[in-house]
Design a protein that fits this description.
Blueprint (H helix, E strand, L loop, with lengths): L2 E5 L2 E3 L5 E8 L8 E6 L6 E6 L6 E3 L7 E6 L4 E6 L8 E7 L2 E2 L3 E5 L2
Parallel strand pairs: 2-11
Antiparallel strand pairs: 1-3, 3-8, 4-5, 4-9, 5-6, 7-8, 9-10, 9-11
Length: 112
């Protein structure tokens, strides 16, 4: 069955960095575009970044452009989200997603 398992979240100070990982299994990963979403307390879930199946094209929310980088490794069946210059507004649960499938999420907290 399809599984998406996120990891790498945690507590970081403003200006810090984190790298999130999503391990995928149960589907033909190398043919599927992938996305990262996030949901902050009291807010709707929003798209953060997406990447095509080959990794040749990426897309970012305006709020993270220039700070976050999405990438993938089709051999390892992994998707990554490198997050730099983190701000308190980046605090949220981050989810890996494709189609109707979501991971369980990983908490990112940006606070001093």
């Amino acid at each position: 069955q399809v599984q998406l398992v996120e990891s790498g979240g945690g507590l970081v100070q403003p200006g810090g960095s984190l790298r999130l990982s999503c391990a995928a299994s149960g589907f033909n990963f190398s043919r599927i575009g992938m996305s990262w979403y996030r949901q902050a307390p009291g807010k709707e879930r929003e798209l953060v970044a997406s990447i095509t199946s080959t990794g040749g094209s990426t897309n970012y929310a305006d709020s993270v452009k220039g700070r976050f980088t999405i990438s993938r490794d089709n051999v390892k069946k992994m998707v990554y989200l490198e997050m730099n210059s983190l701000k308190p507004d980046d605090t949220a649960v981050y989810y890996c997603r494709f189609s109707v499938y979501w991971g369980q999420g990983t908490q990112v907290t940006v606070s001093s």
